[in-house]
Write a structure and sequence with these properties.
Helices cover 47% and strands 9% of the residues. It is α/β, with parallel strands linked by helices and 291 residues long.
Length: 291
């Protein structure tokens, strides 16, 4: 099955391992990813904060490229890219004047539609159908993850209908439970990690990270899982600093959902680059005899 694929900037830079994992895992599940030719940055936070037009136009160009492939679906693993693409698609569908203005500058017009899917939109139906369990070679027994969705995966600045629960999402929990893990119930699954504030308001970002990190530990989690490159990077990279600042002794590996599903399906941990995390992510898997 061939689907369009938009990696976005993070998956070609700081979260290159996530791109590698997506290609390995989805290939294992029978999906052929067709990366968009000449894709551009979705604009992320910077464009949408500085210009509503630019925040719509940048992802719109990628939508035009995706529609031009003739494929019916596009997979977008990054939570922020996924959000920006959905918001742009919604804006263009409701504002013909805006759509015409943006299309006038595009080589590939946004005409027609394509289904935008997150990595969870791909994996959850396979979990519910039993296909993930059928293809798994080991159960994720002993893993007690805190499923961290962050603030972009289910909540948008406009009204967009999604299948998951907006305030208490469950998609990662469904996947984890199907593969034998025991996700915890916690209060910070949709809280912000600080995102780019880690650069321009470092102190506030560390406060936000410390709150979700401490709560996950206090509720018995032995790891955190996410789909967002920014969330993964922030919680992974600043854990040591946050722990020392706020008196939190324990350290938790911060996995992408693709890593745990990949382990369950028998993909090689080093090929997925799980050993490239800043906070050790191999130790727990070895301790539980999952690798």
């Amino acid at each position: 099955m061939e689907v369009a694929y938009y990696p976005g900037c993070s998956l070609h830079s700081s979260s290159k391992l996530y791109d590698i994992q997506c290609r390995l895992l989805l290939g294992k599940l029978g999906m052929e990813l067709k990366e968009l030719d000449d894709w551009n940055c979705c604009g992320a936070t910077a464009a949408s904060k500085s210009s509503e037009f630019l925040g719509t136009a940048l992802p719109a160009r990628n939508l035009g490229l995706a529609i031009a492939t003739g494929l019916s679906e596009i997979v977008i693993p990054c939570s922020e890219c996924y959000s920006r693409m959905l918001v742009s698609q919604k804006a263009l569908s409701e504002n013909r004047t805006l759509k015409d203005s943006i299309n006038a500058e595009l080589s590939h017009k946004v005409e027609g539609s394509i289904k935008i899917m997150s990595i969870l939109d791909v994996l959850v139906p396979l979990a519910k159908s039993g296909e993930l369990a059928h293809q798994s070679v080991k159960k994720l027994s002993g893993l007690k993850p805190a499923c961290y969705y962050g603030c972009l995966m289910t909540r948008f600045p406009v009204d967009i209908a999604i299948e998951d629960n907006v305030e208490n999402p469950q998609f990662m929990e469904i996947i984890c439970e199907e593969l034998g893990a025991a996700p915890i119930d916690w209060s910070y699954k949709t809280d912000c990690c600080g995102a780019s504030a880690a650069i321009n308001d470092h102190e506030q970002a560390l406060i936000l990270i410390s709150k979700l990190y401490r709560d996950a530990i206090e509720r018995g989690a032995n790891c955190i899982i996410t789909t967002c490159p920014f969330c993964q990077l922030n919680v992974d990279a600043y854990q040591e600093k946050v722990g020392k600042l706020y008196g939190i002794e324990k350290r938790l590996p911060v996995y992408f959902i693709t890593e745990l599903v990949g382990v369950a399906l028998g993909l090689d941990a080093k090929e997925m680059q799980i050993d490239r995390h800043i906070t050790d992510a191999m130790g727990l898997l070895k301790e539980l005899k999952l690798i």
